[in-house]
Amino acid sequence: MLAIEMLQGGHGDALVVEYGKGNRVRRLLVDAGTAHAYDAVRKRLLARRDARYDAFVITHVDEDHIGGAVKLLQDPDLRHRIDHVWFNGYAHCKQGGNVLGPLDGERLTQAITTGGYTWNAPFAKPVSPKVGGPVVVPATGDLPSFALEGGATLTLLSPTGPKLRRMATEWENVVVDAGLVPGKGTDLEARAPKSWDKPVKALPDVLSPTQLSRLAAATAVDGSAANGASIAFILEYDGARALLAADAHPTPLVSGLRRYGRMKGEERVRIDICKLPHHGSRANVTTALIEAIDATCYLVSTDGRTFGHPDDAALARVLCASASSPRIYCNYASERTRGWIKRAKAAGGRVIVPGARETSMRVEVA
To answer: Which residue range(s) make up the domain with 238?
Structure first.
C-alpha cells in the first residue's frame, strides 16, 4: 500500500505519505500548510492517532509550506511524533545553495535546534557533527536515492545546486536587514500574510477540443527562487510510485524525471500518484512535465485562495497530455475545482473533490 492524504492546509501543502502492509505502516509528513490553516491541520493530525512520522520534510521556505511547520515543531501535542527533519537551512545554503523565506527559515532553524530533532541526517557532506548535509541533486550521475525504514526508496529530483545558490545573497540581505545573524535562528514572532479570494475567470460549461487545446497552450514558467529550491522526490514502495513535486520549477523537474527514467529504463516514467507542483499553477504544470510521466492519478493541494490555483491552463494540460484518462483529486471543493467536474468529464477525465463533511482527501495504490 502506498497512499497520500492531503490535509486542508489552506493554499499550501500539508501531506501525509503512508506505505506498508497490514499494521506495519510507515509515514512521512511533507509540509504543514499556512500558519492560518494550522488549526485544521493540527485537528486532523491529532485525529489520525499516528504514533510517529519517520521524517518531516519541509520542502521550501514559502509561508504556505513552512508557516504551519514552525507551529507544529513547537506543538506539545504533536512535536514528539517527529524525530527527523529534512530542511535546507542557512548552513546548507552556504554549502550547497539556498532557500527563500529567510525570516521563517530562521524561525524554523530555531525550532529544530532547540527541539532536539535530527536534521538532514541521511545527506552527505554534513555541515556540522550534529547536522547533515544539504538536500541537493548533483549535476551529473545517478540521482540520490535513499532506503527508508519499511522497504521504501526515496529518489531526489530537486533542488539543484544552481537553484539553491541563487538565493544565497537574498537570504543574507533579508536576514541582515531584519537585524539578525543568518543561520543563528530567531524567536521573533511571525506575522502570517493575509489571504483573499481571487476571482475565477468564467469558462464555458463544456470545452470543445479546440478550446481545451488553446487553454493548454504554453505560458511563462515559474521564476520564483523559493519554488526553485523545493525538495521534490519520487517515493517507491512495493512497485508503486508517488511523485511529490512540491513547488519545483518545471524544467529541472523534467530533467530529473528523464534522469530517473534512464535509471529505470523507462522513456516515460511510470507514476502511480502525482502531486502536481505548485498547487496546479500554469507556471509549473507544463505539457512537457505531463508528457514526461506515465500517470493517470493527479493530486491538487490548495483551497484556491490568494492565487486562484489550480489554474485552468494547468488542468487543461493534464487532460490533454496525460498518458490516458486522468483522475484529478482535490482536497478542497473550491469554485474552480467544482467548475472543472463537468468540464473534465466532457474531456474524458475526472475531477474529484471532497464531500461537505470531509476534511482531507486520501488516495491509495494497493
So the answer is: 2-182+200-365
| Separation CA 112–CA 114 (nearest Å) | 6
What is the rounded end-to-end Cα distance, in angstroms, of the chain?
5
pLDDT at position 186 over 70:
no
Enclosing H/E stretch for 180: none
Helix, coil or strand: residue 91: helix
The Cβ of residue 321 has, within 10 Å, a number of other Cβ atoms equal to 18
* pLDDT tens digits, 342-359: 999 999 999 999 999 999
Helices 102-115 and 168-177 cross at an angle (nearest 10°) of 80
What's the pTM? Answer: 0.93
CA distances to 132, 154, 269, 306, 343 from 136, in Å: 12, 13, 21, 30, 39
Rounded Cα gap, residues 244 and 275, in angstroms: 5
Cell numbers that stand for 301 in this block: 493541494
The string of pLDDT tens digits covering residues 122-157 is 999 898 898 999 999 999 999 999 999 999 999 999
How many domains does the chain fold into? 1
**Is the residue at 195 inside a domain?**
no
Q: Helices 63-72 and 102-115: crossing angle, nearest 10°?
A: 20
Domain assignment present for residue 194? The answer is no
Range 45-50, long-range pairs (CB < 8 A, 24+ positions): 45/7, 45/16, 45/72, 45/78, 45/81, 46/77, 46/78, 48/16, 50/16, 50/81
Closest Cα to residue 234, out of 259, 260, 215?
260
- If phi over 0 gives left and psi between -120 and 50 gives alpha, with beta otherwise, what is residue 279? left
Do the domain assignments include residue 271? yes
Q: If we measure between CA atoms, which residue out of 221, 273, 280, 294 comes closest to residue 252?
A: 221
Strands ordered across the beta sheet of 360-365: 118-119, 84-86, 55-57, 24-30, 15-21, 2-7, 360-365
Strand pairing partners for 15?
6, 30
Torsion from C-alpha of 322, 276, 57, 355, nearest 10 degrees: -110
Strand order in the sheet with 145-147: 145-147, 153-158, 232-237, 240-244, 273-275, 297-300, 327-330, 350-352
Specify the residue for cell string 489571504: 195
Residue 357 lies in a domain: yes
CATH at 19 = 3.60.15.10
Peptide bond into 159 cis (omega under 30): yes
